[in-house]
Amino acid sequence: xxxxxxxxxxxxxxxxxxxxxxxxxxxxxxxxxxxxxxxxxxxxxxxxxxxxxxxxxxxxxxxxxxxxxxxxxxxxxxxxxxxxxxxxxxxxxxxxxxxxxxxxxxxxxxxxxxxxxxxxxxxxxxxxxxxxxxxxxxxxxxxxxxxxxxxxxxxxxxxxxxxxxxxxxx
Length: 170
Description:
five-stranded mixed beta sheet; alpha/beta; Nucleotidyltransferase, domain 5; 6 helices; single chain
């Protein structure tokens, strides 16, 4: 699944209802930084944008990977859509390449390994990247809220899809 596609430092961001998660990779099996940022208050997008910009300025990635909210199957809120667009505009103004992958494309990529659900994808990621194995939340039951750590695995699924598919032609 994981190719040797190299793009230098690649930062993947995944926006959640609680804030956002990020992973910074140096290669397809080399995470060098990751985290989950919880943002509270009335203006989450402004706070998230400021925190994301600080993160990008700190790490200076060669590429940023985001979820494709424009995909027809996307069910993301307008707030999340607007935040992704703001991040994309900011990175474009600084010459940082930005790539988008839909949830469907992530499922197709991980489906080749028999993983269809978010929990199954997180399990595959834990097996491929030992640093994340102990961070994997327990399987979600229908009455449970999603564990905040799942955002880390969503961001990782995005970046691994990027590495697997390669850099698309402009």
